[in-house]
Amino acid sequence: MAKRIITISREFGSGGRFIGEEVAKKLGIAYYDKNIIGQIAEKSGLSPEYIQENAELSPKKGLFAYAFSGRDITGKSVEDMVYEAQRNIILELAEKEPCVIIGRNADYILKDRDDVLNVFIHGDMPEKIKRITGLYNVKEKEAVKMMADTDKRRRTNYNFYTDQNWGKASNYTLCLNSSQLGYDRCEMIIMECVK
Amino acid sequence: MAKRIITISREFGSGGRFIGEEVAKKLGIAYYDKNIIGQIAEKSGLSPEYIQENAELSPKKGLFAYAFSGRDITGKSVEDMVYEAQRNIILELAEKEPCVIIGRNADYILKDRDDVLNVFIHGDMPEKIKRITGLYNVKEKEAVKMMADTDKRRRTNYNFYTDQNWGKASNYTLCLNSSQLGYDRCEMIIMECVK
């Protein structure tokens, strides 16, 4: 079946978000990333700042925070409520229109649809460091720490909510090393796959 | 740097070998698969039949067979000697000419070269079963067992000799789901990446 939704999972610093945004522009379809935070906030009743910090990443406290965090009377933690709101919005967006969705376990959330192209973008350390030091104006040591922390929180969130392993090839239709292939070629390959 | 060597790792039944062979034909470059068994046999002094059964797969006994198998006076097991012979041949082939190499941990063995495109091909269960039942003239149940056994032995061999995880996206330049993308498109994408 032809693919009309593109999900992009990505390592921090791999340029995956940039590639996804370019693909959406070139295909003339919607692009969903931080711009859905407002909707998640509205749906969950929590603040956009809280969502920004927690909706895609595991708590800084780590995995145990999920397993043992405070539950309400229904057995749901605040994290679960955010996740549920985010999940519903992603399901609605996919139903509504062709789009690119960045992160947020969208590959797993949309697993029952067969019109979804799931992409994972990763890269080599030197290129990722170069990108992060440039984008965030930090030194190499800080860039390495940001990368390790962010990817660890993404992985923890993904593995907890999906029971799959983040970055395992078989979860995705297409995995690309953006350092070796270049951003332009990554975009071209993704577009080739939704033809 | 331009890629002149293509390594193809693949799930059993994903058509990875077929895709690799087609790419080699279309690019007019050498194709190495079972046809290097004779060379490995010569180099290691073991029989081609033994190599066929053991050079890419872990022993049927599983991982412990590696760790605790009999060692000669240098501390090497027979499996290690086969692996060493295979490794040297792959290094020589990559040095000699542009080529496609199927399996045999070639991605890891060639990791110090920057002219290698490492590809992992995987697929969805129904399509893999269909391919195996057709190719090997077996029933579905037998196909599922062949798949589980072969992939387990490939994974065990890979993880043991590379200290990496077989099928983890970041080991490869490109990972493709052949069931969703189709064999033709997989071939086209691979060729696009060595341009």
TrEMBL record, chains A, B:
<dbReference type="InterPro" id="IPR027417">
    <property type="entry name" value="P-loop_NTPase"/>
</dbReference>
<keyword id="KW-0808">Transferase</keyword>
<protein>
    <submittedName>
        <fullName>Cytidylate kinase</fullName>
    </submittedName>
</protein>
<dbReference type="Pfam" id="PF13189">
    <property type="entry name" value="Cytidylate_kin2"/>
</dbReference>
<keyword id="KW-0418">Kinase</keyword>
<dbReference type="GO" id="GO:0016301">
    <property type="term" value="F:kinase activity"/>
</dbReference>
